[in-house]
Design brief:
Two copies of one chain form a homodimer. The first copy, chain A, folds into two domains: about 70 residues, Glutaredoxin (3-Layer(aba) Sandwich), CATH 3.40.30; about 110 residues, Glutathione S-transferase Yfyf (Class Pi), Chain A, domain 2. Helices cover about 50% and strands about 5% of the residues of chain A. The first copy, chain A, has seven helices and four strands. In chain A, helix 1 links the parallel strand 1 and strand 2. At the A-B interface, helix 3, helix 4 and helix 5 of A face helix 3, helix 4 and helix 5 of B.
Amino acid sequence: MKIYGDSISGNCLKVKWVADSLGLSYDWIETDVLRGQSRTPEYMAMNPAGQVPAVILDDGRPLAQSNAIILHLAEGSALIPADAYERARMLEWMFWEQYSREPYVAVARFQVAYLGKAVADLEPRIMERGKSALQRLEDGLDGRAFLAGPAVSLADVALVAYTRVAHEGGFDLADYPKVVAWVARVEKALNIPA
Amino acid sequence: MKIYGDSISGNCLKVKWVADSLGLSYDWIETDVLRGQSRTPEYMAMNPAGQVPAVILDDGRPLAQSNAIILHLAEGSALIPADAYERARMLEWMFWEQYSREPYVAVARFQVAYLGKAVADLEPRIMERGKSALQRLEDGLDGRAFLAGPAVSLADVALVAYTRVAHEGGFDLADYPKVVAWVARVEKALNIPA
């Protein structure tokens, strides 16, 4: 398998962590978004959305969208709860992440850490919605070790990716103690270096 | 099952269409977002994200996020391709829809048709990205009757919801003839009144 990813992107790291956790072998092809490497004609032929990550599976077929890729790679593994309802809750978190969380927490981090914007200059809406998303996560972890089911699942993979680097976008995780403890738990379960 | 939905929301209609298509019985509880009915304390206790749709399953447990709900309801049905790769492509379209399409095509429609904004006053970025998403859909339908696999799937359900009403947000679907033909095909396959 070939993974086209940008190492600074949480969405790309999700795919790496799942592949590593499942012991899958792959070539990582570093794809620098800031230098336009996900917008070349060759890349767009593989993934017309022009986004990272994308993979070429062992049979040569392409697949894109971080959450679709990790759901495919992890099918039948312990990273997907066996119980139908827990699996549905896992998907609920994963869709929520891409719609209500990534556009704020990840975008703030990208603008601050990679485009050099000051936190004070971020759109107020981005910070406000990012904080609201972190609070939603804090509430969702009340009385739970992991987001869906009794063990680490793809919901945790999807949500931890940008949460663990949220401080780089000006968010103070100290306001969310359950989130901080959960990040450490997920990093340990997936062998992600802290 | 109880479905909490706003009839003007494509995300909510996805759930209705899938339930109808599978012959599931349910009570539809009309939930008016513009009047704040998805933000009451009672509603937030069921879905802390404060969004529609949400469902209460037959066993009394809640579930939110349109695409997570339809994946759960349709599990084991013909609306999910049996082939693992086609299933993965279905998920790729569904995640892409929520991240790269809904925030533009659906938001434009909401602002124009429900908040009374003029198309000319929409953020240029919204129209530009909406058009780019419609073009991506047009390209994805090249040589295909449906988005993933040989028959109608949840990818078509998820993508048709806001595409069929894109003109209400100022988009001209005549520029995307494959999309127009596909919308009619999906409406027919799902028995959606045109």
